[in-house]
């Protein structure tokens, strides 16, 4: 049995446009279960344990902004965690795709879900034969937003024979944390391109050149086009 796992995370909300929430992004991370990544997961956990961080659920936005469990960490330690996650992503055999809308051009949540549905549907149709090569396509989402759950159910059920949906806890799956990482970095990239870069982002990444060269360019190599 060939299985494709799809881990999904989102950034933003379906509320009105604001400077602090200019985009809505859905990120999908695709993993062919024939490609074993358990050794790489174990290595990441070991690396994090050396930092005194056992069973850490990596949440990328708060690392950058110095929030939640990272609020008392200095920038050196936060960058260490970030870079270990980046190294993990570069080492594993996964692909991803991001879908986004710019909220200032959207009237309401109905239009937002419609535009995102079209993007995701077009992507699945473009890769339809590749999806059908798998016996099972399992979609993992934490049901964080009702609109997204409905959108995913509608699109995947309409286009694929028997998609299987699984509700997940982010702490249980490293690849869900990878989806969170990539979703955050897609937002960072969009903000960088549109002169919306925040002070905390500039402080964390240092300068635009290093951000593009060391992170954004490397992530692009994993994109499923």
Which tags fit this structure?
about 220 residues; alpha/beta; about 15% strand; 9 helices
Commentary on this structure:
The protein is an alpha/beta fold. The protein has helices spanning 38-50, 60-65, 75-91, 109-126, 128-132, 146-159, 174-193, 199-205, 208-220, and strands at 3-11, 23-32, 95-102, 136-141, 164-167. The chain has a 5-stranded mixed beta sheet with strand order 3-2-1-4-5, sandwiched between helices. Strand 4 (136-141), helix 6 and strand 5 form a beta-alpha-beta unit. Helix 4 packs parallel to helix 6 (146-159) and helix 7 packs across helix 9 (208-220). The longest helix is centred in the C-terminal third of the chain and has 20 residues, at 174-193. The two termini are 25 Å apart. The relative contact order is 0.20.
